[in-house]
Design goal:
single chain; mainly beta; nine-stranded antiparallel sheet; seven-stranded mixed sheet; 2 helices
Length: about 375
């Protein structure tokens, strides 16, 4: 089973899929607006239906909501059918070139028979993308006449995480995680999970190695004056890390991490990464000159977006929030692929055999993504910030 659809294949599907109003089939298709049909002389005057529920912008506890409209009206008698459309954008078009096989961001349902009660409903029969603001609309069809679309309404899907082959998402704002909590951690409502000690971290055991992909997250509480526990050094604390299995982190030949070096760093308060693609001969990290040009006094009250990507090399980007100003962007190539046998990822990192402190105590994480495809633009936009 392929875990992503190539953009070309998705585009071909979108162009070729039809909308047979009598088929009753649910499809993921490009939802292009259509003008209402006036029909021939004597055709019905058909009004648009009206969205009824869920309430506008409601936060739902499901990935398969029931959408309800107040029925259309017509100048003529006869059976009416309804078409429902759902999308993660108000243009009702595909928002990205590559679609997930696990969660839908586009749904088109035709052939829904009108309920004589005055309200007609459709229950989504595939999981929508979690933690996402979705938009929906409906229209009526009677004979050869199609009404205008209803007004566009919105809802937010269930804020939930998942860890499946090729994709991981962990919102962390609702008091739960799809990872393993190690050491002292605290869930902060609507903020995420905080690492409370020098030996705390979150561990994700991936069901399938991601040989090329993205690991990204929002982090706040990063500070230059990093608290240090007795007996620890704090020159290379990790914001995130990856390795093979559960061996000693500092000697693992598949170790990759993004760092914010504290007051003991060389130099203090620089951002740095280190990536090992199967051994010392495949180790890459920015050199001393780059490190000295990448010194930042991060503000613990701000949220920073950390993004690591790899594919025969590694790139680290850091910005002020998702989509905010980017102030760090460094990349280096390497002559090998990333291919650990047991891919494990961390928020923070385990303490190494040398006793080097691996986390920033007080750092709070949320909206974590790790996948073979880039982070979907709308994933997580239902999370209040």
């Amino acid at each position: 089973m392929k875990h992503v659809w190539l953009a070309a294949a998705a585009a071909a599907l979108l162009m070729n899929a039809g909308c047979d109003s009598g088929s009753g089939e649910t499809k993921q298709v490009e939802l292009t607006p259509a003008s209402p049909s006036s029909g021939s002389g004597g055709s019905a005057a058909l009004t648009a239906p009206t969205p009824d529920s869920p309430a506008e912008n409601a936060q739902l506890a499901t990935l398969r909501p029931t959408l309800t409209v107040r029925n259309a009206t017509s100048s003529q008698a006869g059976a009416r059918l309804y078409e429902f459309q759902i999308s993660d954008n108000t243009g009702f078009t595909a928002s990205g070139g590559v679609l997930s096989v696990y969660y839908a961001v586009i749904v088109n349902k035709t052939g829904v028979a009108e309920d004589p009660s005055g309200k007609t409903s459709f229950t989504v029969d595939t999981d929508l993308q979690p933690a996402t603001k979705m938009y929906w609309r409906a229209r009526a069809v009677q004979g050869g006449v199609t009404s205008a679309w209803s007004a566009t309404a919105s809802f937010k899907t269930k804020i939930a995480g998942y860890n499946v082959p090729g994709e991981l998402f962990d919102p962390l704002t609702g008091g739960e995680t799809v990872g393993e909590r190690v050491g002292s951690t605290t869930f902060i409502p609507e903020k995420g999970i905080r690492l409370d000690s020098s030996s705390s971290f979150i561990r994700y055991r991936l069901p399938q190695t991601v040989t090329a992909g993205e690991f990204s997250m929002e982090v706040e509480g990063l500070r230059p004056d990093i608290p240090v526990a007795p007996g620890f050094s704090v020159n290379k604390p990790k914001i995130f890390g990856m390795q093979d299995g559960d061996g000693d982190y500092t000697t693992n030949i598949w170790r990759i991490d993004g760092q914010y070096r504290g007051l003991e760093g060389n130099p203090p308060n620089c951002i740095q990464f280190r990536a090992m693609f199967g051994g010392d001969q495949y180790k890459i990290e920015p050199d001393t000159a780059v490190r000295y040009s990448m010194v930042f006094m991060l503000d613990p009250s701000k949220t920073y977006f950390w993004k690591g990507t790899w594919s025969n090399g590694f790139r680290l980007e850091v910005s002020e929030g998702i989509g905010g100003p980017k102030f760090y962007d460094q990349a280096l190539p390497v002559g090998n692929a990333y291919n650990p046998a047991r891919h494990v990822a961390y928020l923070g990192a385990p303490v190494g055999s040398g006793g080097e402190m691996a986390v920033i105590v007080g750092a709070t994480y949320r909206n974590v993504w790790l996948g073979t495809r880039p982070r979907p633009a709308t994933l997580g936009n239902a999370i209040e910030r």
